[in-house]
Amino acid sequence: MTTTTTQPVLADVPPPARPQKGPRSAARGDGRFSPGRTARYALLLFFLVVVLIPVYVLIVTSFKGPGDAAATRAWNLPTSWTLENWRAAWTALSPAILRSVTMVVPASIISAMLGSMNGFVLSKWRFRGANLVFTLILFGMFIPYQAVMIPLLQLVLGIGLPSGVPTLILLHVIYGIPITTLIFRNYYESVPTELIEAARVDGAGMLRTYWSVVLPISIPSFVVVLIWQFTSAWNDFLFAVFFSSSQNGPVTLALNNLANGSILQNYGTSMAGALLASFPTLLVYVLLGKYFIGGLMSGSVKG
């Protein structure tokens, strides 16, 4: 007797589905043409070229001789490269550059410290009317300098302050307080209140809490404020015109005098002077640019 064994019939089981790539990963993986991405890069490239065109003219013209530096040949490379423009510009601007350094460094540090203390008091050591005081401080940011320049000049002359670097330091500190207070107050709002309360429980007063607890964690905001104040004070021209002279003024005033005296003689000297005057702020942004962005973002989210 023969026994027949029936084999079970297995149903066709479909293979497991492969994970689908999202639109972003697919565009990145297969390298297909993306019109939107191409348009974005083209737009960014266009703006980059627009920004770099004046820089190209500045650099190229600064190495041209007197007969080669002309408006009709601004796009051409120098027929003969020379460093004489840079030597002349450095000779004319070096004293003013030193005066600008002695002006912006203390002005930036003092205004940053005052803004830090204001921001701490207005955010973590509040008192009755703190919001009103903060509003009045911010009101100073929206007053155009041109509107108060004549009364301010009369006030400075009436007090008897000498023209030059000391007066410019004082003015930059005063007019830097609103923006520095705003930046530090927003940053300190993200600091946990429990940290301040713990310092109070330990017996620390306002100054002790600020110096031992708040100040060590304020480095990101200090970087932002110092870069901001340094750039604003270095590039200022209006205060320099009213409260200093060519003998005791900053580099912006000296650069203006150099340009006015070089227009009919040599464009190259003016261009070299403009590059020399912009090097310090450019160097600050190159060295501290990433900390500037990080400091801005550090106080943008509470908690």
Reconstruct the topology from this structure.
Blueprint: H1 23-30, H2 35-62, H3 84-124, H4 130-139, H5 145-159, H6 165-189, H7 193-201, H8 206-214, H9 219-235, H10 238-243, H11 251-262, H12 267-298
Helix pairs in contact: 2-12, 3-6, 3-9, 3-11, 3-12, 4-6, 6-9, 7-8, 9-12, 11-12
Model description:
It is a single chain. With about 300 residues, the protein is an all-alpha fold. The chain has one domain: MetI-like fold (Orthogonal Bundle). Helix content is about 70%, strand content about 0%. It has helices spanning about 25-30, 35-60, 85-125, 130-140, 145-160, 165-190, 195-200, 205-215, 220-235, 240-245, 250-260, 265-300. Helix 11 (about 250-260) packs antiparallel against helix 12 (about 265-300). The longest helix is centred in the middle third of the chain and has 41 residues, at about 85-125.
Low-confidence stretches are: none
| Helical residue percent band | 55-70%
CATH topology: MetI-like fold
Strand/helix succession: HHHHHHHHHHHH
